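Objective 1b. Sequence-to-structure analysis of Wall-associated receptor kinase galacturonan-binding domain-containing protein.
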Amino acid sequence: MEEIHRLHLHALAILVIVAMVVPSTVAGGLCRESCGNIPVRYPLGIEDGCGSPYYRNMLTCADNATLRLRTPSGTYPVTGADYSDPHLVVTDPSMWTCARPFTSVHAAPFSLDTSTRFSLSPRNDYLFFDCDEARVIVAPRPASCDRYPDRCDSACDSAGYLCRNLPGCRGALEEGNMTCCAYRPRATESLRAMLRHCEAYTSVYWRAAGDKFPPYDQVPAYGVRVDFEIPVTTRCLQCQDKSRGDGGTCGFDPATRDFVCICDGGWNSTTDCADGHASGHHGSAGVIAASVVVSISAAIGIGGLWYIRKIRPSKVVTCGVQSNENRFF
């Protein structure tokens, strides 16, 4: 009997601690606006419930310093983000660069989940080095390919501009006695097939260096450009509108994926930050906190019943007489 009372006291103490700690922790956590020197804005988000649900759990912030993108092929550092021309720049540590020019790496090439709103930019060019010419067609790209690109998908261009003008180290291939060809795969599978027969690969994207005479103001740089879409909704625009209070951050309820306007005071609204706090609009923070408390309460309750059954005396009721020794409650 004493053991049962002690168990009840322990369960009550845990519930009180959870009720005090969990709501304040979740409700006080606003969406981070950066990771290191990379800005993080809508529709992207690091914390669950921030940004658009289309990009949920796609980004992480390692050691509060390095933004990383999750993909089916791995997790990759993000070196840049642009929201006016929406895209991320990602680096693949296994790729060839001027700093690692002679490293032979047979790793899974960078790939994206096609079910997400991320997509590989057409501004990416892929270069392959020291390919087995018995398995890969390595030849100069005919001029007709510019007009009929579908007829030239199977060849890797040995006369590509970037093979002759590698960013930052133009003469590296000649010094290392390496061969190079440029290839634009249509799918990740063809990229994997190429890498099986080549020693290394790299990705070069075309970065805008100015705002005059596009696309002639672009320069090549190492990395993978990943484009993303910015879903624009009326509710998000109202949430961000500073004429409606202080302006909030667009987010969503992790439990329902419904829209939530996250306000600076640590409270959430279903509309904007003008009067949502006064009118009692509460967002995902309360839902998450309540869900956690209920889940822990249920776990404690189940554990308590299991423990009670475990310590219950094995004596049975004889002839309908129940003594203090075999009484259950």
